[in-house]
Fold:
Amino acid sequence: MTDKSKLGFYLLLMPLLLWLITLIILPHIGLFMVSISEKIGVRQYETGLGNYAVFFNEPLYWRTFARTAFMSIFTTVLTLVLGFPVAYYIAKLTRGRTKTTLFLMCLIPFWVSELVRTFGWMILLRETGVLSNFLQYTGVIGGPVEFLYNDGAIMVGLVYTSILFMIVPLVTTLDSLDDSLIEAGYDLGGSGYSIMREIVIPHAMPGIVSGCIVVFMLSLGNYLTPILLGGKDSLWFTGLIYTQFITRFNWELGSAFGFLLLALSSTIVFLGLKLSRQSLSDTMGR
Amino acid sequence: MIPTIPQTKLLKWSYRAYVTLFFVYLALPLTVVSVFAFNNSVFPSLPWEGFTMAWFFGTEAPFIGVFNERSIMRAIGTSAFVAVWVAGLAVFVGTCNAFLFVRHDFRGKGFLYILMLLPLIIPGVILGISILVFASSVANTLEDNTEMWFDALRPGLVLVILGQFSFITTFATLVISARLQKFDTSLEEAALNLGATKWGAVRQITLPFLLPAIMGAGVVAVLMSFENFNTTLMLVGSDSPLTITMFDKLKHGSTPVLNAVSLLLMIVSAGLGLLALLFQRGKD
Structure:
Protein backbone atom coordinates (compact mmCIF):
# COMPACT_ATOMS: atom_id res chain seq x y z
CA MET A 1 0.00 0.00 0.00
CA THR A 2 1.29 3.42 -0.87
CA ASP A 3 1.09 6.23 1.68
CA LYS A 4 -1.72 7.85 -0.24
CA SER A 5 -3.96 4.79 -0.39
CA LYS A 6 -3.17 4.17 3.27
CA LEU A 7 -4.49 7.62 4.05
CA GLY A 8 -7.63 6.85 2.01
CA PHE A 9 -8.10 3.62 3.92
CA TYR A 10 -7.91 5.34 7.30
CA LEU A 11 -10.27 8.08 6.14
CA LEU A 12 -12.80 5.39 5.20
CA LEU A 13 -12.25 3.51 8.44
CA MET A 14 -12.90 6.58 10.62
CA PRO A 15 -16.68 7.01 10.17
CA LEU A 16 -17.24 3.27 10.71
CA LEU A 17 -15.22 3.17 13.91
CA LEU A 18 -16.73 6.42 15.18
CA TRP A 19 -20.25 5.06 14.59
CA LEU A 20 -19.66 1.62 16.07
CA ILE A 21 -17.66 2.74 19.08
CA THR A 22 -19.69 5.75 20.20
CA LEU A 23 -23.17 4.50 19.36
CA ILE A 24 -23.01 0.72 19.73
CA ILE A 25 -20.06 -0.57 21.76
CA LEU A 26 -19.58 2.08 24.48
CA PRO A 27 -23.33 2.51 25.13
CA HIS A 28 -23.74 -1.23 25.66
CA ILE A 29 -20.74 -1.40 27.98
CA GLY A 30 -22.21 1.59 29.81
CA LEU A 31 -25.58 -0.14 30.04
CA PHE A 32 -23.90 -3.17 31.59
CA MET A 33 -21.95 -1.03 34.07
CA VAL A 34 -25.13 0.72 35.19
CA SER A 35 -26.93 -2.60 35.52
CA ILE A 36 -24.33 -3.87 38.02
CA SER A 37 -24.32 -0.76 40.16
CA GLU A 38 -26.57 -0.45 43.20
CA LYS A 39 -27.70 2.87 44.57
CA ILE A 40 -26.74 3.27 48.24
CA GLY A 41 -27.19 7.01 48.61
CA VAL A 42 -27.49 10.26 46.68
CA ARG A 43 -25.11 9.83 43.73
CA GLN A 44 -23.38 6.99 45.57
CA TYR A 45 -23.15 3.59 43.97
CA GLU A 46 -21.71 0.19 44.76
CA THR A 47 -20.89 -2.59 42.33
CA GLY A 48 -23.00 -5.70 42.76
CA LEU A 49 -25.59 -7.97 41.22
CA GLY A 50 -28.44 -6.59 43.31
CA ASN A 51 -30.53 -5.48 40.34
CA TYR A 52 -30.44 -8.97 38.87
CA ALA A 53 -31.38 -10.39 42.27
CA VAL A 54 -34.43 -8.12 42.30
CA PHE A 55 -35.43 -9.55 38.94
CA PHE A 56 -35.19 -13.17 40.09
CA ASN A 57 -36.86 -12.55 43.45
CA GLU A 58 -39.87 -10.66 42.14
CA PRO A 59 -42.26 -13.09 40.40
CA LEU A 60 -43.95 -10.30 38.43
CA TYR A 61 -40.66 -9.50 36.68
CA TRP A 62 -39.45 -12.95 35.72
CA ARG A 63 -42.94 -14.15 34.87
CA THR A 64 -43.38 -11.24 32.49
CA PHE A 65 -39.98 -12.08 31.02
CA ALA A 66 -40.95 -15.73 30.47
CA ARG A 67 -44.38 -14.73 29.13
CA THR A 68 -42.81 -12.35 26.63
CA ALA A 69 -40.38 -15.04 25.50
CA PHE A 70 -43.04 -17.74 25.10
CA MET A 71 -45.49 -15.49 23.30
CA SER A 72 -42.72 -14.38 20.95
CA ILE A 73 -41.83 -18.01 20.17
CA PHE A 74 -45.50 -18.75 19.59
CA THR A 75 -45.78 -15.72 17.28
CA THR A 76 -42.75 -16.94 15.33
CA VAL A 77 -44.19 -20.44 14.85
CA LEU A 78 -47.60 -19.06 13.90
CA THR A 79 -46.05 -16.64 11.42
CA LEU A 80 -44.05 -19.43 9.80
CA VAL A 81 -47.06 -21.75 9.53
CA LEU A 82 -49.36 -19.04 8.17
CA GLY A 83 -46.76 -17.37 5.96
CA PHE A 84 -45.15 -20.40 4.31
CA PRO A 85 -48.13 -21.36 2.09
CA VAL A 86 -48.51 -17.76 0.96
CA ALA A 87 -44.79 -17.43 0.18
CA TYR A 88 -44.88 -20.75 -1.69
CA TYR A 89 -47.91 -19.60 -3.66
CA ILE A 90 -46.21 -16.35 -4.68
CA ALA A 91 -42.88 -18.01 -5.51
CA LYS A 92 -44.03 -21.16 -7.27
CA LEU A 93 -47.61 -20.83 -8.49
CA THR A 94 -47.62 -17.35 -9.99
CA ARG A 95 -45.67 -15.85 -12.86
CA GLY A 96 -44.73 -12.48 -14.26
CA ARG A 97 -46.98 -9.56 -13.42
CA THR A 98 -49.24 -11.43 -10.98
CA LYS A 99 -46.19 -12.39 -8.98
CA THR A 100 -44.89 -8.81 -8.83
CA THR A 101 -48.33 -7.52 -7.84
CA LEU A 102 -48.85 -10.06 -5.06
CA PHE A 103 -45.35 -9.45 -3.73
CA LEU A 104 -45.94 -5.69 -3.73
CA MET A 105 -49.25 -6.18 -1.94
CA CYS A 106 -47.31 -7.97 0.79
CA LEU A 107 -44.76 -5.16 1.00
CA ILE A 108 -47.11 -2.17 1.19
CA PRO A 109 -48.45 -2.75 4.73
CA PHE A 110 -44.82 -3.11 5.86
CA TRP A 111 -44.01 0.38 4.59
CA VAL A 112 -46.85 1.85 6.63
CA SER A 113 -46.04 2.76 10.22
CA GLU A 114 -46.63 0.07 12.83
CA LEU A 115 -48.69 2.61 14.76
CA VAL A 116 -51.17 2.92 11.89
CA ARG A 117 -51.48 -0.85 11.54
CA THR A 118 -52.10 -1.26 15.27
CA PHE A 119 -54.63 1.57 15.17
CA GLY A 120 -56.45 -0.34 12.42
CA TRP A 121 -56.71 -3.41 14.65
CA MET A 122 -58.03 -1.27 17.48
CA ILE A 123 -60.84 0.01 15.26
CA LEU A 124 -61.60 -3.53 14.11
CA LEU A 125 -61.56 -5.28 17.46
CA ARG A 126 -62.92 -2.81 20.01
CA GLU A 127 -66.35 -3.23 21.56
CA THR A 128 -67.94 -0.68 19.25
CA GLY A 129 -65.68 -1.84 16.45
CA VAL A 130 -66.22 -3.30 13.03
CA LEU A 131 -65.93 -6.99 13.93
CA SER A 132 -68.32 -6.80 16.87
CA ASN A 133 -70.88 -4.90 14.77
CA PHE A 134 -70.51 -7.30 11.87
CA LEU A 135 -71.08 -10.34 14.07
CA GLN A 136 -74.13 -8.70 15.65
CA TYR A 137 -75.47 -7.87 12.22
CA THR A 138 -75.10 -11.46 11.02
CA GLY A 139 -76.65 -12.71 14.25
CA VAL A 140 -73.68 -14.74 15.48
CA ILE A 141 -73.57 -12.81 18.77
CA GLY A 142 -76.40 -11.11 20.67
CA GLY A 143 -74.72 -8.01 22.05
CA PRO A 144 -71.47 -6.08 21.65
CA VAL A 145 -68.36 -8.13 22.43
CA GLU A 146 -64.96 -6.73 23.36
CA PHE A 147 -62.26 -8.42 21.26
CA LEU A 148 -59.57 -5.97 22.28
CA TYR A 149 -57.39 -5.97 25.42
CA ASN A 150 -56.52 -9.67 25.65
CA ASP A 151 -53.66 -11.96 24.63
CA GLY A 152 -55.48 -13.07 21.48
CA ALA A 153 -55.55 -9.49 20.25
CA ILE A 154 -51.81 -9.17 20.96
CA MET A 155 -51.13 -12.31 18.90
CA VAL A 156 -53.21 -11.05 15.98
CA GLY A 157 -51.34 -7.75 16.04
CA LEU A 158 -47.88 -9.31 16.43
CA VAL A 159 -48.43 -11.80 13.60
CA TYR A 160 -49.72 -8.99 11.42
CA THR A 161 -46.73 -6.75 12.13
CA SER A 162 -44.12 -9.42 11.55
CA ILE A 163 -45.50 -11.77 8.88
CA LEU A 164 -44.01 -9.68 6.10
CA PHE A 165 -40.53 -10.27 7.47
CA MET A 166 -41.21 -13.99 7.19
CA ILE A 167 -42.71 -13.91 3.71
CA VAL A 168 -40.02 -11.82 2.01
CA PRO A 169 -37.03 -14.11 2.78
CA LEU A 170 -39.18 -17.20 2.12
CA VAL A 171 -40.22 -15.94 -1.32
CA THR A 172 -36.59 -15.13 -2.15
CA THR A 173 -35.29 -18.60 -1.26
CA LEU A 174 -38.24 -20.50 -2.75
CA ASP A 175 -37.84 -18.51 -5.97
CA SER A 176 -34.36 -19.93 -6.40
CA LEU A 177 -35.60 -23.52 -6.19
CA ASP A 178 -35.73 -24.98 -9.68
CA ASP A 179 -39.13 -26.46 -10.57
CA SER A 180 -37.45 -29.39 -12.28
CA LEU A 181 -36.14 -30.59 -8.90
CA ILE A 182 -39.73 -30.89 -7.67
CA GLU A 183 -40.73 -32.61 -10.92
CA ALA A 184 -37.83 -35.03 -10.52
CA GLY A 185 -39.08 -35.78 -7.03
CA TYR A 186 -42.50 -36.69 -8.41
CA ASP A 187 -40.92 -38.75 -11.22
CA LEU A 188 -39.02 -40.74 -8.64
CA GLY A 189 -42.29 -41.56 -6.93
CA GLY A 190 -42.26 -39.07 -4.08
CA SER A 191 -45.51 -37.99 -2.48
CA GLY A 192 -46.43 -34.34 -1.97
CA TYR A 193 -45.48 -34.65 1.68
CA SER A 194 -42.09 -36.29 1.15
CA ILE A 195 -41.17 -33.76 -1.55
CA MET A 196 -42.06 -30.92 0.82
CA ARG A 197 -39.96 -32.49 3.56
CA GLU A 198 -36.95 -33.58 1.54
CA ILE A 199 -36.67 -31.02 -1.25
CA VAL A 200 -38.60 -27.82 -0.59
CA ILE A 201 -38.01 -27.29 3.13
CA PRO A 202 -34.26 -28.08 3.11
CA HIS A 203 -33.86 -25.67 0.22
CA ALA A 204 -35.89 -22.97 1.98
CA MET A 205 -33.99 -23.40 5.25
CA PRO A 206 -31.89 -20.20 4.99
CA GLY A 207 -35.08 -18.23 4.41
CA ILE A 208 -36.89 -19.97 7.24
CA VAL A 209 -34.05 -19.27 9.66
CA SER A 210 -33.62 -15.61 8.77
CA GLY A 211 -37.39 -15.10 8.80
CA CYS A 212 -37.75 -16.75 12.21
CA ILE A 213 -34.86 -14.78 13.71
CA VAL A 214 -36.22 -11.45 12.52
CA VAL A 215 -39.80 -12.22 13.58
CA PHE A 216 -38.73 -13.42 17.02
CA MET A 217 -36.60 -10.33 17.63
CA LEU A 218 -39.30 -7.98 16.44
CA SER A 219 -41.90 -9.59 18.71
CA LEU A 220 -39.59 -9.67 21.71
CA GLY A 221 -38.65 -6.03 21.29
CA ASN A 222 -42.13 -4.86 20.38
CA TYR A 223 -43.67 -2.17 22.56
CA LEU A 224 -46.62 -0.70 20.68
CA THR A 225 -48.69 -3.78 19.94
CA PRO A 226 -48.79 -5.29 23.47
CA ILE A 227 -49.39 -1.87 25.08
CA LEU A 228 -52.18 -0.81 22.75
CA LEU A 229 -53.90 -4.15 22.06
CA GLY A 230 -53.22 -5.92 25.36
CA GLY A 231 -55.22 -5.61 28.55
CA LYS A 232 -54.17 -4.47 32.01
CA ASP A 233 -52.69 -7.88 32.82
CA SER A 234 -50.99 -8.47 29.48
CA LEU A 235 -47.60 -7.10 30.47
CA TRP A 236 -44.72 -7.13 28.02
CA PHE A 237 -41.08 -6.97 29.07
CA THR A 238 -40.31 -3.85 27.03
CA GLY A 239 -43.17 -2.20 28.94
CA LEU A 240 -41.38 -2.96 32.23
CA ILE A 241 -38.16 -1.47 30.87
CA TYR A 242 -40.03 1.69 29.87
CA THR A 243 -41.63 1.94 33.32
CA GLN A 244 -38.29 1.62 35.12
CA PHE A 245 -36.59 4.17 32.91
CA ILE A 246 -39.20 6.83 32.31
CA THR A 247 -41.83 6.48 35.06
CA ARG A 248 -39.85 5.21 38.06
CA PHE A 249 -36.53 6.70 37.03
CA ASN A 250 -34.79 3.57 38.32
CA TRP A 251 -32.16 3.33 35.59
CA GLU A 252 -30.12 0.68 37.41
CA LEU A 253 -32.96 -1.86 37.44
CA GLY A 254 -34.07 -0.79 33.96
CA SER A 255 -30.56 -1.42 32.60
CA ALA A 256 -30.51 -4.88 34.17
CA PHE A 257 -33.86 -5.61 32.48
CA GLY A 258 -32.51 -4.30 29.20
CA PHE A 259 -29.45 -6.49 29.46
CA LEU A 260 -31.54 -9.59 30.20
CA LEU A 261 -33.70 -8.91 27.14
CA LEU A 262 -30.60 -8.40 25.02
CA ALA A 263 -29.09 -11.64 26.35
CA LEU A 264 -32.26 -13.59 25.55
CA SER A 265 -32.56 -12.22 22.05
CA SER A 266 -28.85 -12.79 21.28
CA THR A 267 -29.00 -16.34 22.65
CA ILE A 268 -31.95 -17.22 20.46
CA VAL A 269 -30.31 -15.69 17.39
CA PHE A 270 -27.07 -17.56 18.16
CA LEU A 271 -28.89 -20.88 18.69
CA GLY A 272 -30.90 -20.40 15.51
CA LEU A 273 -27.75 -19.82 13.50
CA LYS A 274 -25.89 -22.73 15.14
CA LEU A 275 -28.74 -25.22 14.67
CA SER A 276 -29.08 -24.37 11.00
CA ARG A 277 -25.29 -24.06 10.54
CA GLN A 278 -25.44 -20.57 9.11
CA SER A 279 -23.50 -17.41 9.78
CA LEU A 280 -24.82 -14.00 10.66
CA SER A 281 -23.30 -12.49 7.52
CA ASP A 282 -25.14 -14.95 5.25
CA THR A 283 -28.47 -14.58 6.99
CA MET A 284 -28.58 -10.86 7.61
CA GLY A 285 -26.16 -9.51 5.08
CA ARG A 286 -28.42 -10.01 2.10
CA MET B 1 -47.28 -28.58 -5.84
CA ILE B 2 -46.25 -26.71 -9.00
CA PRO B 3 -48.30 -25.82 -12.12
CA THR B 4 -46.87 -28.68 -14.21
CA ILE B 5 -48.03 -31.32 -11.73
CA PRO B 6 -51.80 -31.96 -11.83
CA GLN B 7 -53.71 -31.37 -8.59
CA THR B 8 -57.26 -32.07 -7.52
CA LYS B 9 -59.68 -29.17 -8.02
CA LEU B 10 -60.59 -29.07 -4.34
CA LEU B 11 -57.00 -28.66 -3.25
CA LYS B 12 -56.35 -25.99 -5.84
CA TRP B 13 -59.38 -23.95 -4.85
CA SER B 14 -58.90 -24.25 -1.13
CA TYR B 15 -55.31 -23.12 -1.58
CA ARG B 16 -56.50 -20.10 -3.56
CA ALA B 17 -59.15 -19.37 -0.95
CA TYR B 18 -56.49 -19.38 1.78
CA VAL B 19 -54.23 -16.99 -0.11
CA THR B 20 -57.19 -14.67 -0.81
CA LEU B 21 -58.16 -14.74 2.85
CA PHE B 22 -54.60 -13.85 3.75
CA PHE B 23 -54.62 -10.78 1.55
CA VAL B 24 -57.96 -9.73 3.06
CA TYR B 25 -56.29 -10.00 6.48
CA LEU B 26 -53.43 -7.82 5.23
CA ALA B 27 -55.71 -5.16 3.77
CA LEU B 28 -58.33 -5.05 6.52
CA PRO B 29 -56.72 -2.77 9.16
CA LEU B 30 -55.40 -0.32 6.58
CA THR B 31 -58.81 -0.18 4.89
CA VAL B 32 -60.76 0.57 8.07
CA VAL B 33 -58.26 3.24 9.10
CA SER B 34 -58.72 4.94 5.73
CA VAL B 35 -62.50 4.61 5.62
CA PHE B 36 -63.09 6.05 9.08
CA ALA B 37 -61.04 9.13 8.16
CA PHE B 38 -64.18 10.21 6.28
CA ASN B 39 -66.72 9.39 8.98
CA ASN B 40 -68.76 12.36 10.18
CA SER B 41 -68.49 11.39 13.86
CA VAL B 42 -66.14 12.27 16.70
CA PHE B 43 -65.21 8.61 17.28
CA PRO B 44 -63.33 6.45 14.79
CA SER B 45 -65.91 3.68 15.04
CA LEU B 46 -69.33 2.62 13.82
CA PRO B 47 -72.07 3.74 13.25
CA TRP B 48 -71.37 5.41 9.95
CA GLU B 49 -72.63 9.01 10.18
CA GLY B 50 -72.03 10.09 6.62
CA PHE B 51 -69.14 11.25 4.48
CA THR B 52 -67.07 14.28 5.48
CA MET B 53 -63.74 15.87 4.65
CA ALA B 54 -63.75 17.75 7.97
CA TRP B 55 -61.01 15.57 9.46
CA PHE B 56 -58.67 16.93 6.82
CA PHE B 57 -59.74 20.55 6.41
CA GLY B 58 -62.15 21.26 9.30
CA THR B 59 -61.62 24.40 11.36
CA GLU B 60 -64.36 24.28 14.02
CA ALA B 61 -64.07 22.23 17.23
CA PRO B 62 -64.53 19.34 17.61
CA PHE B 63 -64.06 18.90 13.85
CA ILE B 64 -60.49 20.17 13.57
CA GLY B 65 -58.81 18.73 10.50
CA VAL B 66 -55.20 17.57 10.23
CA PHE B 67 -54.07 20.64 8.36
CA ASN B 68 -55.37 22.89 11.13
CA GLU B 69 -54.30 20.81 14.10
CA ARG B 70 -51.15 22.58 15.23
CA SER B 71 -49.69 19.77 17.38
CA ILE B 72 -49.80 17.32 14.47
CA MET B 73 -48.40 19.73 11.92
CA ARG B 74 -45.54 20.56 14.29
CA ALA B 75 -44.87 16.85 14.85
CA ILE B 76 -44.72 16.26 11.10
CA GLY B 77 -42.17 19.06 10.86
CA THR B 78 -40.10 17.52 13.66
CA SER B 79 -40.22 14.10 12.00
CA ALA B 80 -39.14 15.56 8.67
CA PHE B 81 -36.23 17.39 10.34
CA VAL B 82 -35.07 14.20 12.06
CA ALA B 83 -35.52 12.12 8.90
CA VAL B 84 -33.42 14.44 6.74
CA TRP B 85 -30.54 14.41 9.24
CA VAL B 86 -30.71 10.64 9.73
CA ALA B 87 -30.84 9.95 6.00
CA GLY B 88 -27.95 12.30 5.27
CA LEU B 89 -25.71 10.86 7.97
CA ALA B 90 -26.64 7.23 7.28
CA VAL B 91 -26.03 7.55 3.54
CA PHE B 92 -22.68 9.28 4.06
CA VAL B 93 -21.38 6.70 6.55
CA GLY B 94 -23.00 3.88 4.54
CA THR B 95 -21.14 4.94 1.38
CA CYS B 96 -17.81 5.10 3.24
CA ASN B 97 -18.49 1.66 4.73
CA ALA B 98 -19.34 0.22 1.33
CA PHE B 99 -16.01 1.39 -0.13
CA LEU B 100 -14.19 0.08 2.93
CA PHE B 101 -15.72 -3.39 2.88
CA VAL B 102 -15.84 -3.89 -0.91
CA ARG B 103 -12.52 -2.31 -1.91
CA HIS B 104 -10.17 -3.00 0.99
CA ASP B 105 -8.76 -6.10 2.61
CA PHE B 106 -7.40 -5.68 6.09
CA ARG B 107 -6.92 -7.51 9.34
CA GLY B 108 -10.12 -7.76 11.40
CA LYS B 109 -12.37 -7.12 8.39
CA GLY B 110 -14.63 -10.07 9.16
CA PHE B 111 -14.94 -8.99 12.76
CA LEU B 112 -15.81 -5.40 11.84
CA TYR B 113 -18.37 -6.66 9.33
CA ILE B 114 -20.13 -8.67 12.05
CA LEU B 115 -20.03 -5.61 14.34
CA MET B 116 -21.54 -3.56 11.52
CA LEU B 117 -24.44 -6.04 11.29
CA LEU B 118 -25.08 -6.10 15.07
CA PRO B 119 -27.55 -3.18 15.16
CA LEU B 120 -29.92 -5.41 13.16
CA ILE B 121 -30.23 -7.89 16.01
CA ILE B 122 -30.38 -5.45 18.92
CA PRO B 123 -33.98 -4.66 19.91
CA GLY B 124 -34.80 -0.99 19.30
CA VAL B 125 -35.75 -0.36 22.92
CA ILE B 126 -32.32 -1.56 24.09
CA LEU B 127 -30.55 0.57 21.50
CA GLY B 128 -32.53 3.53 22.85
CA ILE B 129 -31.80 2.98 26.54
CA SER B 130 -28.12 2.20 25.99
CA ILE B 131 -27.61 5.46 24.11
CA LEU B 132 -29.69 7.30 26.74
CA VAL B 133 -27.57 5.92 29.60
CA PHE B 134 -24.28 6.55 27.82
CA ALA B 135 -25.12 10.09 26.70
CA SER B 136 -26.32 11.00 30.20
CA SER B 137 -23.19 9.69 31.88
CA VAL B 138 -21.00 11.57 29.40
CA ALA B 139 -23.05 14.72 30.04
CA ASN B 140 -22.76 14.26 33.82
CA THR B 141 -19.00 13.81 33.67
CA LEU B 142 -18.54 16.79 31.38
CA GLU B 143 -20.80 19.01 33.46
CA ASP B 144 -19.05 18.05 36.71
CA ASN B 145 -15.65 18.87 35.24
CA THR B 146 -16.32 21.93 33.11
CA GLU B 147 -19.30 23.57 34.80
CA MET B 148 -20.94 24.05 31.42
CA TRP B 149 -24.28 22.61 30.26
CA PHE B 150 -24.46 19.87 27.64
CA ASP B 151 -28.16 19.80 26.81
CA ALA B 152 -27.61 18.09 23.46
CA LEU B 153 -26.73 14.91 25.37
CA ARG B 154 -30.02 14.96 27.30
CA PRO B 155 -33.17 13.41 25.80
CA GLY B 156 -34.10 15.44 22.75
CA LEU B 157 -33.81 15.62 18.99
CA VAL B 158 -30.03 15.18 18.85
CA LEU B 159 -30.27 11.88 20.69
CA VAL B 160 -33.27 10.82 18.58
CA ILE B 161 -31.23 11.48 15.43
CA LEU B 162 -28.20 9.57 16.80
CA GLY B 163 -30.39 6.68 17.97
CA GLN B 164 -32.08 6.22 14.61
CA PHE B 165 -28.81 6.75 12.75
CA SER B 166 -27.18 4.00 14.81
CA PHE B 167 -29.20 1.22 13.17
CA ILE B 168 -30.36 2.76 9.87
CA THR B 169 -26.70 3.06 8.82
CA THR B 170 -26.48 -0.73 8.66
CA PHE B 171 -29.28 -0.83 6.08
CA ALA B 172 -27.67 1.96 4.06
CA THR B 173 -24.33 0.10 4.12
CA LEU B 174 -25.91 -3.14 2.87
CA VAL B 175 -27.84 -1.45 0.02
CA ILE B 176 -24.85 0.58 -1.21
CA SER B 177 -22.36 -2.32 -0.86
CA ALA B 178 -24.56 -4.56 -2.98
CA ARG B 179 -24.41 -2.05 -5.81
CA LEU B 180 -20.68 -1.36 -5.45
CA GLN B 181 -19.94 -5.08 -5.72
CA LYS B 182 -21.43 -5.08 -9.23
CA PHE B 183 -19.16 -2.25 -10.35
CA ASP B 184 -16.62 -3.15 -13.01
CA THR B 185 -13.31 -1.77 -11.65
CA SER B 186 -11.78 -1.68 -15.13
CA LEU B 187 -13.91 1.42 -15.77
CA GLU B 188 -12.11 3.19 -12.96
CA GLU B 189 -8.74 1.92 -14.22
CA ALA B 190 -9.54 3.29 -17.67
CA ALA B 191 -10.20 6.70 -16.14
CA LEU B 192 -6.87 6.50 -14.29
CA ASN B 193 -5.09 5.55 -17.56
CA LEU B 194 -6.65 8.58 -19.19
CA GLY B 195 -5.03 10.76 -16.56
CA ALA B 196 -7.74 11.13 -13.95
CA THR B 197 -6.75 11.37 -10.30
CA LYS B 198 -7.91 8.63 -7.95
CA TRP B 199 -10.54 10.88 -6.38
CA GLY B 200 -11.53 12.27 -9.79
CA ALA B 201 -12.19 8.76 -11.09
CA VAL B 202 -14.29 7.88 -8.07
CA ARG B 203 -16.25 11.11 -8.30
CA GLN B 204 -16.88 10.99 -12.04
CA ILE B 205 -17.22 7.27 -12.68
CA THR B 206 -17.99 5.30 -9.50
CA LEU B 207 -20.29 7.70 -7.63
CA PRO B 208 -22.62 8.24 -10.63
CA PHE B 209 -22.83 4.45 -10.95
CA LEU B 210 -23.71 4.22 -7.24
CA LEU B 211 -26.28 7.02 -7.39
CA PRO B 212 -29.41 4.81 -7.70
CA ALA B 213 -28.35 2.82 -4.63
CA ILE B 214 -27.47 6.00 -2.73
CA MET B 215 -30.86 7.55 -3.53
CA GLY B 216 -32.62 4.27 -2.74
CA ALA B 217 -30.83 4.01 0.61
CA GLY B 218 -31.73 7.63 1.34
CA VAL B 219 -35.43 7.05 0.68
CA VAL B 220 -35.44 3.89 2.81
CA ALA B 221 -33.68 5.80 5.59
CA VAL B 222 -36.30 8.56 5.51
CA LEU B 223 -39.07 5.97 5.62
CA MET B 224 -37.51 4.07 8.52
CA SER B 225 -36.81 7.25 10.45
CA PHE B 226 -40.36 8.55 10.00
CA GLU B 227 -41.82 5.31 11.28
CA ASN B 228 -39.41 4.47 14.03
CA PHE B 229 -41.06 4.20 17.39
CA ASN B 230 -39.13 2.02 19.85
CA THR B 231 -35.77 3.75 19.79
CA THR B 232 -37.33 7.21 19.55
CA LEU B 233 -39.63 6.57 22.53
CA MET B 234 -36.64 6.21 24.86
CA LEU B 235 -34.73 9.24 23.60
CA VAL B 236 -37.45 11.79 22.98
CA GLY B 237 -37.49 15.14 24.77
CA SER B 238 -40.03 17.92 24.57
CA ASP B 239 -40.27 18.05 20.74
CA SER B 240 -41.90 14.81 19.76
CA PRO B 241 -41.90 13.34 16.24
CA LEU B 242 -45.14 12.24 14.60
CA THR B 243 -45.27 8.61 15.78
CA ILE B 244 -44.82 9.67 19.42
CA THR B 245 -47.48 12.41 19.16
CA MET B 246 -49.91 9.97 17.55
CA PHE B 247 -49.20 7.36 20.23
CA ASP B 248 -49.97 9.86 23.02
CA LYS B 249 -53.23 10.85 21.34
CA LEU B 250 -54.14 7.22 20.74
CA LYS B 251 -53.65 6.29 24.39
CA HIS B 252 -56.06 8.99 25.52
CA GLY B 253 -58.79 8.07 23.05
CA SER B 254 -58.90 9.68 19.68
CA THR B 255 -60.97 11.48 17.08
CA PRO B 256 -60.85 10.48 13.41
CA VAL B 257 -58.22 13.16 12.93
CA LEU B 258 -55.77 10.32 13.65
CA ASN B 259 -57.31 8.34 10.81
CA ALA B 260 -56.75 11.29 8.53
CA VAL B 261 -53.06 11.55 9.52
CA SER B 262 -52.71 7.80 9.11
CA LEU B 263 -54.20 7.94 5.62
CA LEU B 264 -51.77 10.71 4.65
CA LEU B 265 -48.89 8.67 6.14
CA MET B 266 -49.99 5.61 4.19
CA ILE B 267 -50.06 7.52 0.92
CA VAL B 268 -46.66 9.11 1.54
CA SER B 269 -44.97 5.91 2.72
CA ALA B 270 -46.40 3.80 -0.10
CA GLY B 271 -45.16 6.49 -2.49
CA LEU B 272 -41.70 6.54 -0.93
CA GLY B 273 -41.58 2.74 -0.89
CA LEU B 274 -42.41 2.55 -4.58
CA LEU B 275 -39.79 5.24 -5.24
CA ALA B 276 -37.18 3.14 -3.41
CA LEU B 277 -38.16 0.11 -5.51
CA LEU B 278 -37.81 2.15 -8.70
CA PHE B 279 -34.30 3.19 -7.68
CA GLN B 280 -33.46 -0.45 -6.98
CA ARG B 281 -34.82 -1.53 -10.34
CA GLY B 282 -32.88 1.22 -12.12
CA LYS B 283 -29.64 -0.45 -11.10
CA ASP B 284 -29.83 -3.54 -13.28
